[in-house]
Design brief:
heterodimer; A: about 290 residues; Multidrug efflux transporter AcrB transmembrane fold; Alpha-Beta Plaits; 2 domains; 4-stranded antiparallel β-sheet; elongated; B: alpha+beta; Gyrase A, domain 2; 12 helices
Amino acid sequence: MNIMKFRPLFLFLSLFLILASIFSIIKWGFQLSVDFSGGSSWQVSLPSKPDDAQIKEVFAKNNIELISIAKNEDSFTLKFPNISLEQKEMLTQDFQKVDPDFSNLQFDTLGPILGKELLMKTFYAILLSSFSLLLFIGSRFKDLSFGASAVLAMLHDAIILVGSFSILGHFFGAEIDALFVTALLTTLSASVHDTVVTFDRIRELKKFSTRLDWVELSNQAVSEVIVRSINNSMTIIFMLLSLVVLGGASTRWFAMALLIGVICGTYSSTAVAIPLMLLSKKKKEK
Amino acid sequence: MLNIKLTTQKLPLLTPLLVTPDNCLSVMQKNNQKTITIFWSIIAVTFLCLIVNLPLKFSLFGKTFYRPDFSLNLGPYKFKPNLDLRYGLDLAGGASLIYDIDTSGQNSENIPDALESLKANIESRVNLFGVSEASVQISSNGDSRRLTVDLPGVANIDEAIGLIGQTAQLSFMGIIDLPPEATATATMEDVLKDTGLKGSHLVKATPSTNPNTGEVEVSLEFNSEGTKLFEKATTDYLNKRLAILLDNQIITAPQVGVIIPDGRAVINGNFDIKSAKALSAQLNAGALPLPINLIQQSQVGASLGQNSINKGLKAGLVGLAIVSLFMIGNYGFLGLVADFGLIVYGLITLTLYRLIPVTLTFPGIVGFILSVGMAVDSNILIFERMKEEIRSGKSWNNAMELGFGRAWNSIKDANTCTIITGLILFNPFNWSFLNSSGMVRGFAVTLLLGIVLGMFTGVFVTRNLLRVLARKNNN
């Protein structure tokens, strides 16, 4: 099956997704969790389920700006700027007046320094990984264009994942937090994993039939590998789906990010990495 | 004759007889012997891991069983490993505090020493708090230094902050006798003479019990410079009083009974354990060598943690079940063998988590789940390759060996890429431009462990099981 003849379509689709991602990032930005924007995030349990006005009143009484209220299944997540210990005590007491069964589930305070730090360090990690993988794959396949294509496919997945969270953030309030960073890094490894398996098959075919040209080789490799590729992604996707459905609210977006990442990773091996590699081969021949 | 029907297409029934040329027979027998040995070793290890992972007490068929205790007595040495699973703060609940350390007042040569003594000081404060498994870490980001204090199980984070964060000024002054005419108009300053001994000289203060009298005391330990100053102070003020001031308030003024040359002293005087602890805390509070500033606090209630664990476990088990069914559905008997390999993988992983030990955080569990997916992937790669070989006419045994051999290259390459990424995330050399946060590292540790183990069980164990079963079918 000549799947490679759809190359222009794949590249067009990828380009569209990347542009959409970049557009969304520039226009709508991200919903940053407290991990990055600095401030306090307080998850509390108020079994009497007071309405928003009552919660706002507690904050107004203490002169603290309440940035947002989020309702989870059995708790509320409140966001506000950094406060002192005494202020937190006052808030606790006032909440206990509203609901005597009030309890403190999780309280995070963060100055924006650490958020920036986490981002920078992650960025460096991605940079270093890309470079190392480029060299490693390039040396294993004795061809730098394989390495470059694999790394570009990986970065393509990263951009789309980040962009999709920008869109999800704008419409559904999905937040970028430290867990998302974990998901991003997972996506990178899964994407490369899948791409390398596909490339490996191409290399093997090349060994046994030096007369076939690269496009035909790719077609054959893909048709041989695609079943395995989808099967494998299915297993990871099953695990993630169960996490999305059964896991708690705090991990739902995280599992979502992983899902998007894995699907992208599988798609990019066939539809991005190989076409890019073929492109560079064609350029070399000219 | 054993016939096993395989549900995947084009895979034939297992051939019941294998004709072998005579001169290959002894080699085959040796290989078979090795295979059998490995097989039983795998079964033994699996069984051992199963026992290690059992709950301490459980009931089966109406009888109650207790998990056997693993303790070895080698002569004078008693070896009893702690086999509990360790949970990180986000799962167990507890508090995490991050401080920025102000190193601006120090010369750069003194900084490493100051950091070490800061860490020791904070550790003793934390121990006073009575938290088991607390951890105090110093990390760096470029030029700035961070102090991270993790307190599992601590419900009252404000109390912890109060205890740890104080940097009051500690000073030691001798009390001199004034001539009688001056006492009427004397002020505190006239009576107190600075000995030069300060909080930064005190390494730590701890409550202790006198072995002879059984009284509760507070032990002081000074650093080398402090030892000299303390010796001088006790000489100068022998039989007089030394006042210990915190923020210019006298907290205690013990009498100096003897010259103390080694920098270690005890303060005694009607302490009970509570007041001894309080005094030690106060003394330690003034003894920070470097100022610290709280920049992040985070607290997870234990109930929230337990909830997350339960949900995560459920999700994991359901996911595993679906994957197992999928494997059987797609590869039939082979899938079943792969599933058994997965169980072995899971048991060995859990056992290693208990033994090493690995602190489980939520990202850590995610890393584990991802590595399960990749272990299954290895098996799928092999089985697909086997299918191809059989399609091209090879016998089942041949196809199996070839499948493992040919797929190994892909498995090795793909997993090495993940290992590279995992290592960069784990940051083993503590490079300051890379992550040293517990969360990302927790993910990297379980991922790395999982990939390596997954390669082992996915290839080695599965192949061995298949060989043994194939051999049984051939006889």
